[in-house]
Amino acid sequence: MRPALVLAVALAACGTARDLDRLKDLNAAGDLAAIADTAVDCTGPDDPACLQAREIKANACLRLGTAALAPGSARAACASRR
């Protein structure tokens, strides 16, 4: 591998680890909207940190969507009037 490519992959992996730490902190705080707004940039599909970051984001988006359509929510009430 070329040294520049190795450096680029290493720097991307560091960024993913920082993103994952931030997502874990937001998840612990219950800040689902901030998680959903966070871009997850990954080095590839075989990167465990990337996969975990994507899982945290997907779970937050699912929970936000489920809450928005829950019985009694304003969105659910509007959707049932159609």
Could you explain the architecture of this structure?
The chain contains 4 helices and no strands. It is mainly α and 82 residues long. Mean pLDDT is 77; it is low at 3-13.
Helical segment count: 4
Q: Tell me the major beta sheet.
A: none
Specify the structural class: mainly alpha
Rg estimate, integer Å? 17 Å
Question: What order do the helices and strands come in, and which of them pair?
Answer:
Layout: H1 3-29, H2 32-37, H3 48-68, H4 74-80
Please supply descriptive tags for the structure shown above:
82 residues; mainly alpha; elongated
In summary, what is this structure?
The chain has 82 residues and is mainly α. It has helices at residues 3-29, 32-37, 48-68, 74-80.
